[in-house]
Amino acid sequence: MSATAENLRPAGRPIKARLGRDDLAMRGFMAVIALYLVIALALPLYAMLSKSFSTYQFDLTSYEFQVSDDTGNFQTAPITAAALNETLQAVPSEDLATSSDGRLPATSFFPEFSFRSPMIYRIRGTGEDVSFLIGSERFSGTAWQEVDSNTFRRVMLRPVRSQGLQNYTTYFSTPSLFRSIENSLFISALSTIITVTLAFGFAYALSRSCMRFKGVFRLIALAPILVPSLLPGIALVYLFGNQGMIKGLLLGESIYGPIGIVIGSVFFTFPHAMLIITTALAISDARLYEAAESLKASRWKIFWTVTLPGARYGLISAAFVVFNLVITDFGLPKVIGGQYNMLAVDIYKQVIGQQNFEMGAVVSVVLLIPALVAFAVDRQVQKKQVALLSARSVPYQPRANPRADWLAFGYCSLVAVFIVGLLAVCQFAALIKFWPYDLSLSMNNYAFDLMDGGGWDSYYNSIQLALLTAVFGTLVVFTGGYMVEKIKGFETGRGLFQLLAMLPMAIPGMVLGLAYIFFFNDPRNPLNVFYGTMAILVICTVTHFYTVSHLTAVTALKQMDREFESVAASLKQPFHKLFRLVTVPVCLPTILDISIYLFVNAMTTVSAVVFLYSPTTTLASVAVLNMDDAGDIAPAAAMGMMIFYTNAGARILHLIISKGVLKRTQAWRFR
Amino acid sequence: MRRPLLVLRVIISVTWYKSSEASSVSSYLRIRNLYKNFGDFTALKDISLEIEEGEFVCFLGPSGCGKTTLLRAIAGLDLQSFGSIEQAGRDISALPIARRDFGIVFQSYALFPNLTIERNIAFGLENAGRSKTEITGRVAELLDLVDLADQGKKYPAQLSGGQQQRIALARAIATSPGLLLLDEPLSALDAKVRVHLRHQIKELQRKLGVTTVMVTHDQEEALSMADRIVVMNHGVIEQVGTPTEIYREPGSLFVADFIGETNQIHSTITAANGLTVGKCALRSAAHGFAQGQQVIVTIRPEDIIPHEPGSRRAESDHSALAVTVGEMEFLGSFWRSRLTGAELGDEVLYADFSINAVRRLSLAAGSALTIELPADRLIAFPAGGDDVGNG
Amino acid sequence: MAFRRTCLTAVAAGLLVASTAAAETELTVYTAVEAEDLKRYAETFNQDHPDIKINWVRDSTGIITAKLLAEKNNPQADVIWGLAATSLLLLKTEGMLEAYAPKGVEKLDAKFVDKSTPPAWVGMDAWVASVCYNTVEAGKLGLTPPKTWKDLAKPEYAGHVIMPNPNSSGTGFLDVSSWLQIFGEDGGWDYMDKLHGNIARYTHSGSKPCKLAAAGEIPIGVSFAFRGAKSKAAGAPLEIIVPDEGVGWDMEATAIVAGTAKLEAAKTLVDWSVTKTANEMYNSGYAVVAMPGVAKPVEHFPDNLVEKMIDNDFEFAANNRKAILEEWQKRYDSKSEPKS
């Protein structure tokens, strides 16, 4: 009896699972959260992409002119602007492309025009929606408008919307714009090299030496996470600006520009790199070191042949994370960049400065590319790193070596001084009455209500946003993670969901914020009721920080026994009972981690929300930006430090709650 | 021409026939033409099986043979691709887990770590219209049943592996399911606890009379616990039978080889009840092979009977061979001896001789010996065929 | 009985709440007026009209304009109160303003009222460019105070001048458009080419150069007079210089956003915005206001400021805005770092 193909695929229809109530409920939940991601991510991005192809064009065929003779009689037939341009070639076709703000003087088509001539001009559109201006008055439609020659020179044609690649052509033919690509890449690369090198040294000292105060150093190294990325910029102004405390150290170079951006970038990306590299170093195998030592290899040789290769995935991953953070950051180059243009700032300039939304969308698309590449590479590397992690290895235990330990201590102290120094400068500046002329201490700079940026309200708004983001975000992220991890079957749906959940990491905040304007501020969109509310800020922030939270949740859920759900189902208990009684309590530490992550980031984020806040929802982080923008640098520093203290407080609270909760709900962990 | 697998097939279909004809009541679980595909890989091929009510059945086979896949299909954890499953006369082929009727114990036990032992066991008892006292009573009863009456307030992590296993069992049977599924329940435990738990589980099963399916890769476990064993390999059932049937009358070379230990000898058919072993033609049980055909003949080491050297009772006794003892390995209750000799040609046999026999015959390395290969213990299988018979 | 009384009280209280709710209208007002003035504006307005509550949306001119344009098809604002006339002209050409002649508009200087009938917007006050000059820092560097715009382009000020980027700042744009009007188009660009060599950097906002000059971060900041006067009052060692050639200016103006659901309240606010009370209120920060005869001298304001205001052609500024900004960007924004 041979196994032929037909009895491997017997006749009859394959069995299709009948879905139980739980299956349907879980799919329903997942669908809801997937829908959330589609609305909060996919659709806005699509709206932005289509906006980048939306162009404005003067449509010459839709205007008709008629010119009288010297006595004011109209003898000649009406003629379209297109026909006139064809004979005159007055406006070359590339000049017909413009932005939504474009204006084309009607006199362009009349080279002999003089405002003194007695001739009378008529103009009309050939369709109802064709519009033109006479002075600042807007006319549209097919009715003739008659003007004398002096008024005719005030007639301006308006563009109509069309589709095309023209915005991209304009972008790449405008040096001031595409120069930013080079600048962004350069700054990001340089900052990455410096940060990763410094962070590696720091992480190495933390994990491979027996120096003292490791815990303190670790805490200090993590402090930059608690402040907006633009805060180091403000500190640098006080240190190295023209009135800077130690500006001599720059040897006459200006802090406003690449130098400032790089120093600031190193500050705010340092903790991210440090965390990743520390993890990478922690998993290296002590047995390799023993082997190397038994072969009498020198410390130097061990470093190059064991330590570095072992940490290489961590280093690569850290490099891409830092690169991505720097290239997508907007606050820092905005504050300290001077005339040095970077992509993320360009988006802001195009949108806020010039109201050129289409070009903003184009720059966003350009900014997406390096971010996506960095993201993709990082994902690949992370996969390999995971493989390393699961290998069985013996953790390395450093041995005391006084000389090396003092060296490590010295090095870490330098880094710590750099980090604490910048923060201290901000706090100091915030308390000075009028730098540099009146150095008395005062609380004047905390009178935020007298400044731009929304005053103290923006601080309270930020706390509200952070709390809402933490609660709502954790709920959505953890539920979504649970459904995608524990649902039975439904592979396609899960794959799609995973993709959606990973996407936010690759989307720069500026891009997300801009995409939200396009999507949510469209009057045809019934969701535009959210525009200008706290809700949209929460949605945007949750989406912006979705990926890391999702990965954290999924990692924790993966550690749960895969069969809990099967057991519960076999005992005829609904999944939500299991979720409530087992999953959530067991994952509580992770849930708290996710919420503090979301809280801290909601307090510090600027890039996405800068396009979305409204008068009632001004935010502290944006206030820092706006106060700096208006020249109120000391209040900006003061507000920045308020964010720092709030986040530090939240962290401590988180720690206390975690401990308390752990004691109560995690008793089972301790025998 | 009869083939062992053919025999197996007939047996199965006869069983099937019998049960479907005689009493659909007694056959509790009925699996028909089950297939499971994972992409291009076929994990289960045309599985048909009947399990009687109250029976303890083991799925036994090497890893990757499909035994767990079959169990998960029965439970509805991973649905089969084709084929049907009936439980107590009800078609459950496509039902969600919650609408089936079984309790399950996993290799990992899957005890809820943050709930006490009591709450773990009570988990399935809640929401079913039972009163609190009723539940407490049932939990106490179950704890008693698994001999852990005083452990109720502890958390799973505070118990030993064997204790956790029993809690998982108690939780699975708490709702008195019609079917108990055990997925390698003992494999995570150390040897001594395992042996102890074997008996306890078996006893419990007998007491409750619950139809039980257990997946295991440990033949000793299967042989000692099961009423019937389903031996599986490469996604098909090789043989179904009681432990003694499986051991004494393997249906295929695979089963003969997988269960216990056996000698495999290249052989040629000499008669309807004769074949060669080495250079000698021996009498064997009736087989179905044609004269002159190449076969593999098997005999278990303990079935080889030692005699005084030269003690052939008669020339017509075609069961004896003269051999020389090679290395002898002491394995506690017996000696495993390597046997060679002119009459064996190139073949080597291993025989297990009792300590008594060794003493009686003063066997040592180099001793000459006559062995008897009982005709009914020489079982022939087609040569060159792999474990799926080739026609 | 007691029950009945409570009931009645409750009903009465309910009615009271209902009636105040009906009376109170909330207006969303977009503005670029300095943050520190907003509270005062709202309070003064509420003295006459306590039933209308103002919700301010305050941001810099560029951002507010961008916001309004972005919301073109779905306006969130009811009224714009205190935005550059150049921006309002832009909004007008997009058809975003509700034409309305406020009661008493005839009492205003015609220069301050939109030319259409009824006008799309009315001006409040003028907002005049000036140079903030930090005497202490300039002294340290040995600079002499510039008297004219042309002076500012001299090599001695190289790297010591900051001005706002016209792409994002209304003040920056009025500087550029005034130079193009004062020196003619070619002369204007010529001038800016030279000036660019002296600029340390271009800031995003218009008040920042003056605040930076006040803080000594730079000796010379091209900004506007009002900001300079405020910083000087706050104790900064500033001198406010009005260049001889004349200075650009823009109006802060008021308009109703077309399509507002609260037209009546919006009209009430705009009516009030042209009253004498309102003009006196504007005067506390601006030396030039729309209603003739109201303005009193403002502390620290340069005396000759009004005479030096150029005859600004707003239509030119609005209709050529895009072309000017493109040209400016092409010339000065492409250089990653300023020449010094």
Automatic annotation (TrEMBL), chain A:
Keywords annotated in UniProt: Membrane, Transmembrane, Transmembrane helix, Transport
Domain of life: Bacteria
Pfam family, one: BPD_transp_1
InterPro entries registered for this protein in UniProt: AminoethylPonate_ABC_perm-1, MetI-like, MetI-like_sf
Mode of membrane association: Multi-pass membrane protein
Transmembrane annotation, as ranges: 28-49, 185-207, 219-241, 261-283, 303-327, 359-377, 406-432, 463-484, 496-519, 531-557, 606-625, 637-657
ABC transmembrane type-1 domain: residues covered: 181-378, 459-654
Subcellular location: Cell membrane
Predominant cellular place of this UniProt entry's protein: membrane
GO terms, biological process: transmembrane transport
Recorded GO CC terms: plasma membrane
Stored PANTHER family: POLYGALACTURONAN_RHAMNOGALACTURONAN TRANSPORT SYSTEM PERMEASE PROTEIN YTEP (PTHR43496:SF1), PROTEIN LPLB (PTHR43496)
Family membership noted in the UniProt record: Belongs to the binding-protein-dependent transport system permease family.
Protein name: 2-aminoethylphosphonate ABC transporter permease subunit
Automatic annotation (TrEMBL), chain C:
InterPro entries recorded: ABC_2-AEP-bd (IPR017663), Ferric-bd (IPR026045)
One function term, GO molecular function aspect: thiamine binding
Protein's GO biological process: thiamine transport
Gene3D superfamilies associated with the record: Periplasmic binding protein-like II (3.40.190.10)
Domain of life: Bacteria
Keyword vocabulary terms for this entry: Signal
UniProt KW Signal keyword: yes
A cellular component annotation (GO) from this entry: outer membrane-bounded periplasmic space
UniProt signal peptide: 1-23
Protein name: 2-aminoethylphosphonate ABC transporter substrate-binding protein
